[in-house]
Amino acid sequence: MFIARLTGLSPTAQTAFQWEVSVGTILSGQGTPQLTVDTAGLGGQLVTAKVSIGGLATACSVEASHSYPIPLPPPCGLAFDQYGRINFEDEEARLDNFAIQLFSFPKAQGYIFAYAGRDSMKGEAAKRLLRAKAYLVGSRQMPPGRIVTVDGGYKEEFQVDLIVVPPGAIAPIAMPTLSPSEVETLKVGPKSPARTARRNSRNK
Predict the structure, then answer these.
(1) Which residues contact 203 (CB under 8 A, 6 or more apart)?
(2) How does pLDDT run across 66-121, given as a tens digit for each residue?
(3) What is the pTM of this model?
(4) 152: pLDDT confidence band, cut at 50, 70 and 90?
(5) Could you point out which of 68, 123, 135, 159 has its C-alpha 20 to 30 Å from the C-alpha of 90?
(6) How many CB atoms lie within 10 A of CB 130?
(7) Do residues 125 and 152 make contact, with C-beta atoms less than 8 angstroms apart?
(8) Which long-range contacts (CB under 8 A, 24 or more apart) does 56-60 make?
(9) Cβ contacts of 204 within 8 Å, gap of 6 or more
(10) In this predicted structure, what is the pLDDT of residue 199?
(11) Largest CA distance in the chain
(12) Which CATH code is given to the segment(s) 78-203?
């Protein structure tokens, strides 16, 4: 927002304000002393607003400008780990490392996203989220408020994302790649590759 202030004017003076900006889009205030500019997506650039004022005596300055640096957006969360449909023993090891990372940065927030696969049991992602958070809180003594769980919808394969979000950073959002209409809900849960490999080795 830019504001032009005039002093020492006659009470009967009629002024008109004409604004120009170097970057961004004028949202409101053209013709008035107060200008609002949309600078979305322009972080790190410099916006300069120039105002020309009509209706003044020629002896007065009729133009002014001011520049303002557009702040950079806060950083996004940092992807820490990603895995598929693994057994819980392996998942515990991944969650242990996640907890160590969060404890190393006490003000960071931990996000767990779970995406059900194209072939999945009903509620599979939600159950895995509950299990993961329960492990972090119960076994690793992680404060519940530091863990945010998100059922992200569906992707081609089952997927869990562990994300560390520094203070002030933009919170991550779910990024599904399939709509519910493209998903087949199974009555029997799909087998993980590791479980299938162990079963085949025993049958040899």
Answers:
(1) none
(2) 998 988 766 778 899 999 999 999 999 999 999 999 999 999 999 999 999 998 88
(3) 0.61
(4) very high
(5) 123
(6) 13
(7) yes
(8) 56/9, 56/13, 56/15
(9) none
(10) 47
(11) 100
(12) 3.30.1330
8 HSE (CA, 13 A, CB side): 4
Burial class (CB in 10 A: 0-12, 13-18, 19+), 161: buried
Pairing of strands 34-38, 25-28: antiparallel
How far apart CA 111 and CA 161 sit, in angstroms, is 8
Residues 6+ apart with CB under 8 A from 118: 154, 155, 156, 157, 178, 182, 183, 184
Q: Which two tokens stand for residue 95?
A: 């969650």
Residue listed under structure tokens 């194209």: 118
**Which of 60, 34, 61, 62 is closest to 49 using CA atoms?**
34
Tokens of 170: 């933009």
Query: What residues does each domain of the chain span?
Result: 2-69, 78-203
H helix or E strand, kind and range, residue 152 = strand 147-154
Separation CA 28–CA 34 (nearest Å): 8
Sequence length of the chain is 204
